[in-house]
Specification:
Chain lengths: 111, 113
Amino acid sequence: GEDVEQSLFLSVREGDSSVINCTYTDSSSTYLYWYKQEPGAGLQLLTYIFSNMDMKQDQRLTVLLNKKDKHLSLRIADTQTGDSAIYFCAEAGDSNYQLIWGAGTKLIIKP
Amino acid sequence: NAGVTQTPKFQVLKTGQSMTLQCAQDMNHNSMYWYRQDPGMGLRLIYYSASEGTTDKGEVPNGYNVSRLNKREFSLRLESAAPSQTSVYFCASSELGANTEAFFGQGTRLTVV
């Protein structure tokens, strides 16, 4: 079946770049999303990329999509303490209504 | 702007008790969802409602029922709670399906003892 995989933790130093990786299995995905969950809160859309794009940049965020390898990454430049959160990768696959979610990557910022 | 509002925020139930989680959105969205979040497992879809008047099973529907009361409200009912249903529950809505941004409520932390 469809699956999305992510590492559970990533630790980076404040000011460095963070790269969170995600692999997915459904080649028919139309949209791929990155959601952010801060402690005790619901998820919020951070950014997304359409499947016919290779890259999308939005201020400190860069999303790279490698369709051949079914690999998605989120790069956060100049990581700040406010970036501490869990980051979820999700894909819109075969179903019009069901997103397939990764387990989430907890980003830990070291001073 | 309220967005998606869930109640309650916290709940402790005894095994076998029933309860209903309430969810309302004020964005005039067509689609609404109930997820559960468990450590290391991401979000799993319990039920969704593509539009007012329709509901469908998601990945993990057993032990749950839903009602799309109107366009704004989508409730989740546990008829006979079990410890395996201890989880954080999120309601979400989107304008139309998985290709539009989902907006989430703050979550309900449910413990079944």
